[in-house]
């Protein structure tokens, strides 16, 4: 049996934790390997690529277009296992850092730094002239910069050029680029062991939000996925693996349509959750800050935009 390219693509991940979740779902005991996919180092289920192909039952053929029905059905199967030690966190030279999140540098020869996954290692990328301002609100200056640096061709996260171009995108600010609201636990209730926050943010001030895997989620897709999760799953695990440590008690997808109907005004569209922690050890990690964010784990057939 041949593997459809669309199926193959759903098993390609930018973090080892995501691949481990998929490996568990396939019955491969969480075993993963690093593979070169279209010139990028990625994580995939199984101990080796040969083992993955053997498990799936064949080779990967040429690209086959998935039908809209199949694509929507795959997107609807997004399952959320919420509350994790941030899998977007990593260690770099003994420091716990957030991946793919630029931050300012003090007293350096560059303005920003960002930590990215490069194969099985974490790489520090510095970029930006500290003596120059980013005039992204000036359409002419922005267009000149992006043209001069060929920003439309920059897609390698391990390069300074990629991140410089991200800073010169339209319809956002540097402060928005360097802050992170999505996934963070924003409120805790000690008495009831509840944590509150945005599990997902899909738009900010009317503009689509591109996540750390360079993906976007449409509002109707998010709502269907949330409804599926709340009806059939509601389970949360630590690091997406192991036994259940809590459950989602409250859940509200906030889209413009839903917000308008309820009289809710928000600059964001996304998914707000309240999660109850059962496990004593997990709650201790929440209180200490070791567990500081929500995460959605799932699968989908990606569509190029």
Features:
305 residues; alpha+beta; 3 domains; 6-stranded antiparallel sheet; 3-stranded antiparallel sheet; 10 helices; disordered N terminus
Written description of the protein model:
The chain folds into three domains: 5-65, no CATH class; 102-178, no CATH class; 185-288. It starts with a helix and ends in a 17-residue tail after the last helix. It contains ten helices and 13 strands. Residues 1-6 and 59-87 have low confidence and may be disordered. 28% of the residues lie in helices and 27% in strands. The chain is of the alpha+beta class and 305 residues long.
Give the ordered list of helices and strands: HHEEHHEEEEEHHHEEEHEEHEH
Q: What is the number of beta strands?
A: 13
The residue-averaged pLDDT reads: 76
Number of domains: 3
List the helices and strands and how they pair.
Layout: H1 5-10, H2 16-25, E1 32-37, E2 40-45, H3 49-56, H4 68-76, E3 89-92, E4 95-98, E5 103-104, E6 112-118, E7 121-127, H5 139-148, H6 160-167, H7 174-178, E8 185-189, E9 194-204, E10 207-208, H8 219-232, E11 235-238, E12 241-254, H9 256-262, E13 268-277, H10 280-288
Antiparallel strand pairs: 1-2, 3-4, 5-6, 6-7, 8-9, 9-10, 9-13, 11-12, 12-13
Structure, briefly:
This protein has helices at 5-10, 16-25, 49-56, 68-76, 139-148, 160-167, 174-178, 219-232, 256-262, 280-288, and strands at 32-37, 40-45, 89-92, 95-98, 103-104, 112-118, 121-127, 185-189, 194-204, 207-208, 235-238, 241-254, 268-277.
